[in-house]
Amino acid sequence: MFQTLVFRVFYPGSISGSDSLIPSTTHAIYIAVVEINHKNLTSNAEVVIKVFTNDLDDALFNAYKTHAKLESEDNCMANSLLLEKYFSSHFRCVINKQNRPMHLKSCEKNDNSLWLRFDMTCPVKWRDLKLSADFLMELFPTQSNVISVFHGDKKNYFRLTNSEKSRQIRFVD
């Protein structure tokens, strides 16, 4: 006996042109992916945040009352300070008890999503990492942020939600 499982995801347009604080999106799942890459154990790590473009547009409008219009990579980079400000409030990476700020280095448009690449200075050796990621949760209560952390040969995967917005990882030699 076979069972068929069907998932529906709806992607209506963004709120551009609207002055409403109500999100324009009504899709079935709210998810973002975060990849923290420190495989090479240098003084920099790359953080890639993959997010639906219209959800991020809505969050920026909600926070700053401005239409960022992130529909192109050029517009995305033109809004780099706004994006850095938003993520500094909603994404915190604390390594060895020190907060690590991120700087946007590129935007990549992939269909309905943006891949935001940030550079983060960090120590070569990590004893502990505390990660908080509540971005988009102010608008979408069911938002899930799926995190993968690569530090040297160590890998960690977890999900952050409204009920668990942060996680701490200890690295042992």
What does this structure look like?
The protein is an alpha+beta fold and 173 residues long. The protein has three helices and ten strands. The strands form two sheets. A six-stranded mixed beta sheet has the order 5-6-2-1-8-9. β3 (91-95) and β4 (98-99) form a beta hairpin.
Write the layout of secondary structure elements.
Elements: E1 31-38, E2 44-52, H1 53-64, H2 73-78, H3 80-90, E3 91-95, E4 98-99, E5 102-110, E6 113-121, E7 128-133, E8 144-151, E9 154-160, E10 166-170
Parallel strand pairs: 1-8
Antiparallel strand pairs: 1-2, 2-6, 3-4, 3-7, 5-6, 7-10, 8-9
Key phrases:
173 residues; alpha+beta; six-stranded mixed beta sheet; four-stranded antiparallel beta sheet; 3 helices; 17% helix
Order of helices and strands: EEHHHEEEEEEEE
What gyration radius follows from the Cα positions, in whole Å?
A: 17 Å
What gap, in angstroms, lies between the N and C termini? Answer: 48 Å
What's the number of structural domains? 1
- Give the proportion of residues in helices: 10-25%
Strand order of the largest sheet: 5-6-2-1-8-9
Give the total of beta strands. Answer: 10
